[in-house]
Here is the input.
Amino acid sequence: MNYFLELVGGQCMNDYRGLLIKKQRKELDISLEALSHGVCSPSYLSKIENNILVANDDIYNLLFKKLGISTMDTIKEEKIKQMLDLFFKYYMSSDSKIFKVMDELLEYKDEVVSSCLFVQYQLFLLYASEMNSQINISLAEVEAYYSYMDDSQREYFNLFRLSSGNMELSDNEEWIFIRRLKAKANLCAYQKNTFAAYDLYKTCLNYAIELGNKKLIAEILCSLGWLCLDIDLNQAEKYYTSAAQYDSQYKMLAFFNLGATMIQHKYCMEKGNQYLKKGLKSCTDDFFAVNFAVKYKEALFVYAILKENIHDAKRLIKELDDSKYIDVFSMMLNEDYQLNVDYRNRLKELKNDSSLFKFLFIKNCEYLHKYKEICVANNFI
Here is the structure.
């Protein structure tokens, strides 16, 4: 037995490959003892199969070989991982480059079955199905792998469930029709064909009202609100607040999108702040809500900085230890942070992560341009 591999390999996290090994072993009627022989101990294999630990890649490869499971080339796997990361980055920033990445990823559908990327790829298919009606995958299919998702993947899954997936109607023929129609609307929205997207969403809304399902109505109202955010903020507000009234679960998503957008406009900054505060109160103690609460606090921190309320900003940053943008926020507490080269470079990296960072990047560029004009006028430079 290769106990050395056990010692260097065990990690306490989730990996779908354990489930794949268990399925294949049972199909081939091989005992734990027989499969683990020469690789690891039977108890160690049992932990791998039952998602208690993640082994060293060498152990997986040896077990796959004994089970006749083909493995993916490491270089190809890394390429797919990078593309998956790009897909979700482009999705969250509404970047049209998402279509090229999506088409490339779909070519690997049959190859990721034995990869540790399998679960993330299923999430990709779920999101891609909202833009490509030819992709057939249900929320329930992906939810079956929930215990194998890491924290980031669970956040993506829960976000999809909140904004795009209606569990109650997932097998209903009328809902399938509406979802395919909604996929066309999403596709138009990402292609910046706003009017076509709007008409399709409105058609979806009419069908949803006929069905009488409040959750579905709220979902489509949120889509309409999202579409209107950059075009007509007042109309977006009407759609989002209506969605929250139809189903309180959507309040968390609706109020965040409204608040984070409104604080970027001088005439409605205070209203945006109120939406952020109300939305933060709606965040419960479950995993997804806790993660969403961090996003709310990030936006509230930005609002405090914009209003030059350093006291509130210092209070909020103490609650942002879990934010992946803590370095940016820390810089924003310093006087003349707008002149900080590191701050400017970091915003350049993050400007496509969200509309809020794009706003901060543009605001910083405007500040530096104005600063240069003042310096030239006063012969400082």
About this structure: The chain is about 70% helix and 0% strand.
